[in-house]
Amino acid sequence: AQSVTQLDSHVSVSEGTPVLLRCNYSSSYSPSLFWYVQHPNKGLQLLLKYTSAATLVKGINGFEAEFKKSETSFHLTKPSAHMSDAAEYFCVVSDNDYKLSFGAGTTVTVRA
Amino acid sequence: GAVVSQHPSWVICKSGTSVKIECRSLDFQATTMFWYRQFPKQSLMLMATSNEGSKATYEQGVEKDKFLINHASLTLSTLTVTSAHPEDSSFYICSAWGGTVSYEQYFGPGTRLTVT
């Protein structure tokens, strides 16, 4: 069985400061892990994915995430937040059977 | 590449009527398509998985007779909400998987259904 826990339902940061979105997963196998972003009334956009290659994964728009098996974590970071980063972020796990399990989501607010 | 479209993007229907939502993979063949439902400010919940030419597999608690899924080709899947009621109002999102090892799914923009 697979599941994801996003530890923060809401994160508020000032523009230009770092962003950290925390995600822990549970998986019976070597999982594939993803971060998706959803802007209001828009579809999901893939930010980055981990599929058993390098543990530090770089994505689009300056985001990156690190897979830590010992901590069962896949936290998402960005060094400097931009106003356009305000959105809903989902951590997602797949257990080698193409079925995705979504976390509850983290709402990011960016203050000017 | 890897674009998935949905039509319509927004639909309003009266209670008791049926509405069909289309999901198309525009530039690749989708081995499998998925239908999700998303309530306001909530996460996506998988409703069903469909493979081309076979019956859809529904998640527990999803009514098969209410949410009819047809996957007639490798680029088209449809979701029909039959006898819609106000509680069916939601954001419906489809995704498509092209059979890659990484299990990455490509998501459509979603369809907002409002039942009055």
How is this structure best described in words?
By secondary structure, chain A is mainly beta. Chain A has no helices and 12 strands. Chain A has strands at 3-6, 10-14, 19-21, 23-26, 32-38, 44-50, 56-58, 64-68, 73-78, 87-94, 100-102, 106-111. In chain A, strand 8 and strand 9 (73-78) form a beta hairpin. Chain A starts with a strand and ends with a strand. With 116 residues, chain B is mainly beta. Chain B is built from no helices and 11 strands. The mean pLDDT of chain B is 91.
For this entry, give a set of tags.
heterodimer; A: 112 residues; mainly beta; six-stranded mixed beta sheet; four-stranded antiparallel beta sheet; 12 strands; 54% strand; B: 116 residues; seven-stranded mixed beta sheet
Number of strands of chain A: 12
Provide the β-strand percentage band of chain A.
over 45%
- Average predicted local confidence, pLDDT of chain A: 91
Biggest sheet descriptor of chain B: 7 strands, mixed
* Fraction of helical residues of chain A: under 10%
Mean pLDDT of chain B, rounded to whole units?
91
Indicate the proportion of strand residues of chain B.
over 45%
Q: Quickly count the helices of chain A.
A: 0
Fraction of residues of chain B in helices?
Answer: under 10%
Number of DSSP strands of chain B?
A: 11
Shape of chain A: globular
Shape of chain B: globular
State the end-to-end CA separation of chain A: 41 Å
Low-confidence stretches of chain B are none
Structural class of chain A: mainly beta
N-to-C terminal Cα separation of chain B, in Å?
37 Å
Largest interface: A-B, 23 and 23 residues
